[in-house]
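Report of the visiting student (M.T.), summer placement. My assignment was to run the structure pipeline on a short list of targets and document each run. The first record concerns DNA-3-methyladenine glycosylase I.
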Amino acid sequence: MADYCDLAPGHPYHGPYHDREYGFPVADDDTLFERLVLEINQAGLSWLTVLKKREAFQTAFDGFQVARVAAYDAAERERLLGDAGIIRNRRKVDAAIHNAGVVQALQAEHGSFKAWLDAHHPRSLAEWTRLFRRTFRFTGPEIVNEFLMSTGYLPGAHREDCPVHARALAHRPPWAAA
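After the run finished, the structure tokens were exported:
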């Protein structure tokens, strides 16, 4: 998002995320899962709200360890729905737990969540969205777009004149290699 490059610099929450994470490739499955859960939770809310709650999300979801979240039972679901530090939306909590199980299945079949993403790259946003809707819960076009931009699978995280753009490119995001 072009205006993010104007909004983020110097901001206590947007700045660090914009400068060090947004648009950079991600290799770790737990981090990829975290980004997917955060993007799902942003739906209908501001990204600032999610960033402010990020630490609470990390604690509530056991550091986004895929195997741990996939094993959550009804008691864990209720614990999450009672946690005022996170976004307590039943559909979003259910999607996070369900999607952790999906990521585990992808890991078993492809070796990792990242390998699954790599196997489907490159695709258009419409193709990615269809794939994500068939595979995961709560993944519409905006969530898919932001998830894939934030993890380097789609371009557009930074304007070309943004200083972070060159740094992100130096990390060889998948979209740049396509």
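The domain at 4-177 is CATH 1.10.340.30 (Endonuclease III; domain 1). The mean pLDDT is 97. I thank the supervising group for their guidance throughout the placement.
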